[in-house]
Structures are given as C-alpha cells and as structure tokens.
Amino acid sequence: MRHFKNIIIGFGKAGKTLAGSLTSHGEEVLLIEKDPMMYGGTCINIACLPTKNLVINSQRGVKYEEAFETKEAMTAKLRNKNYHKVADQDLATVLDATAEFLDDKTIKVTDESGTEELTFDRLFINTGAESNVPNIDGLKIDDKIFTSTEMLAKKELAKNLVILGGGPIGLEFASMYAGFGSKVTVIEPMPSILGRFEPEIAQAAKADMEADGVTFMLKSSLTKVEETEAGLNLTVETEDGVKDLQADVMLVSVGRTQPLPPFT
Length: 264
Hints:
Mean pLDDT: 95
Distance between the termini: 18 Å
Shape: elongated
Structural class: alpha/beta
Low-confidence stretches: none
C-alpha cells in the first residue's frame, strides 16, 4: 500500500496552487483528478474564460463554428499549461482516477488499470461544484437538455434555446447565443432576474438583453418537459395561465452544489 504525505483530490485552481506551494516547501504531493479535461479547474475549462471568449466573438460577428474552435484551442492550451505546472515538479504526481474514502487515513482510487488503496498524512478536498438539476416531470440531462458544462461542448449552434434560470450563468449563455443569432427565452420563477443583485443592475441587464432579442418569462415555472424528434415541448405555468413552449434545446441553470468524495 503506497503512502503519501499529502493527497489533493481535484485539480482545480486551489488544488493546483496548493500542490505548487507544498512542493516548493519540499513536501511530496499526489494530485488526483477524475477528468483530464478539467486540469486547472472550472474557470479555464467550462466557465469564466471559455464563456467570455464566446461572448466576445459573438459580439465581433464571428460565426459560431469558428468561435467554438477558437474556444477549444484556448482551453486546450491552458489545460496543458496547468497540467505541467504540477506534473513537472519532482515531488508531485498527477493521477487520473476517482477516489473514495475507506477511513480517515485511507482512500481507494480507481482508474483504467483497476483499484488501489492509498494512505496519507494529510488530505485536501478540492472537488468543486456540480450543476443542480431540479425534479421536474420529464427533465433529464441528455442530447437536448444540458447543463452549462455540456452546453459549452456543443459544436452546433442551437437555433431556438430555452434557458431555465435567470442567474448569472444562464444570462451569460443568453447573451452569448443571442449574439450568435439564436432565439433565446429565459424562464425565471422570481419577479426579476439576478435576484441577489441590486435591482438597478438587474433592470439594466434585462433591458440590454431584451434589446438583443432575448425574451424573459418572469414569475413562471417549468412544470413538464416532453421530447420529440423535432426538439422539446415545454409546459410553463405563468401569471396568465399555462403556456406551451417549443425549443430545439434547453439549458438548465438553477445553481450549483458542492459534492464530496463518497465514503464506503
């Protein structure tokens, strides 16, 4: 059974920075990451940088397919750079695997070669967050319904997009896709978008996006999703009664939670 002084689960920004700090002080580190496409964490791979890159190129009039390839090249370059910042350190090891606790000093890691038990002096959890998916009739993540992670990997432009949730992530995608020429509708159960922000900011953001063609259904709740060969039929309860809405695809953007590694 191999033993490490330090084990970090999750190759996000904090995990990478901590690994660098520990090795600089002469300490051995094992950094475990289950997805090689997430070296460097959320921001450079599936959030801040790729979304901003797409928004900027939509405003510049770049076609979606070209903008997508530009985004992919950027994230690949940053991911590789982040990987080598850790892997090239003499005292650091990067392991592509999943991890689960067996007890307070032992974890089991699983990769393509099988499983292995590891012990440690210190363990740091840096597993980030996952998108919430509400319990709505017919709602499931598949090839027509996405979270922000899958949406950023979609090579084809959605012509008719419905976004569930009027928070910062959903609105960033609304702005982006409207800029590329998509029809965009945002469903939000609250009376306004950006509920945690100052009302003046929310009003200004809504006005700007409406000018770009985004439609908002406020005080509205999605109650049912039906998939067809053509796309999606959505049932929405509004102040004016129940309405049916059609879409090619839907983005689910209703917040994120932070899962922990499982305990056996």
